[in-house]
Amino acid sequence: MPELPEVETVRAGLEKYVLNRRISSAHSYHLRAIKPSSISPLAAVVGAKIRAVKRRGKFLWFELDREFTLVAHLGMSGQLLISSKQLPDQSHLRARIELQKAAGLAGKKSASDEIRFIDQRTFGWLSIEQMHDQVPTSVAHIAYDPFEADFNLKEVITNISSRKSAIKPAILNQEIISGIGNIYADEALWRAKIHPEIICEDLSEDEIKKLINSAKAVMKSAIKAGGTSFDQQYKNVNGASGYFSRSLSVYGRAGQPCSRCSTLIRRIAFANRSSHFCPRCQR
Questions:
Q1: Ligand-binding site membership of 92 (annotated)
Q2: Using CA atoms in the order 34, 39, 45, 49, what is the torsion angle rounded to 10 degrees?
């Protein structure tokens, strides 16, 4: 599932192509492409100018010159690709948003004139939503992510330290801290030398602070690498894979030696997912 670094890579890529361009047409091709709670069909965005592309955690939205916004969540396998209209449709195309030519391209063919929403597993969606306190309706309950100016590290530490749950589900809880998914949770816990099953209230504030800072650091590195790709399901807007998978220390490395102590990395079941950790470094 795309996590914060992958969504930020997509956001930044879209921003290069779509700012100040108007939407000339919009079509959806699958019943699940549009979120059921969307206040309008996708065609409502036709004629709107894209003012900004924004993100919180794993949510992305297009700020328009309208009273509503267009929100995108990539789900498990969603992609937002910039494509020429002349190119054949990709498999699993769920929606298409055509853009007017950018200023200065009059009379020329634009190489990047539509946004295509591709989603093999159909867990992602697009949605037309109202804005509340500068975020869309579906994002209102999502906590700040570590890269936002309003992220309050002290408040998050206090929240986590009072919990009786294991630490990993706490940092995966998007209402506590947003953007962290399974990959970067495992990597952050390894960097901070914290076992994924240790109870939150058994950790010191300094340990929780170190964990959050580790999560921010690993995600920052992943953004620089274009995110993490293991298969064809995550791509940036140009269709390229991210290469942070080469830098992973524990995730997906069960049975391989820890780069810190050479102990074999273990994999354990965790809430219908997997946790990867070093049994020696992380106690």
A1: yes
A2: -120
What was the pLDDT predicted at 241? 83
Name every residue whose Cβ is closer than 8 Å to that of residue 214 and which is 6 or more positions away in sequence: 187, 188, 189, 191, 192
Give the residue ranges of the chain where pLDDT is below 70.
103-112, 230-233
Q: What is the DSSP letter of 140?
A: T
| Both structure tokens of 5 | 């670094």
> What is the model's pLDDT at position 106?
47
Average pLDDT, the chain: 93
Reduced to 3 states (helix: H, G, I; strand: E, B; else coil), residue 6 is helix
What domains lie within the chain, and their CATH numbers?
Answer: 4-139 (3.20.190.10), 153-277 (1.10.8.50)
Burial of 220 (0-12, 13-18, 19+ CB in 10 A): middle
Could you give the residue numbers annotated as active site?
2-3, 58, 273
Burial of residue 103 (CB within 10 Å: 0-12, 13-18, 19+) is exposed
Q: What's residue 107's pLDDT?
A: 47
d(CA 111, CA 37): 34
How far is the C-alpha of 241 from the C-alpha of 221, rounded, in Å?
A: 15
| Helices 4-18, 205-224: crossing angle, 10 deg rounding | 40
Q: What is the pLDDT of residue 273?
A: 85
The span from the CA of 103 to the CA of 110, in Å, is: 11
pLDDT value for 154: 98
**Residues whose CB is less than 8 angstroms from the CB of residue 16 and which lie 6 or more positions away in sequence, other chains included:** none
> In terms of Cα–Cα distance, which of 54, 49, 61, 62 is closest to 20?
49
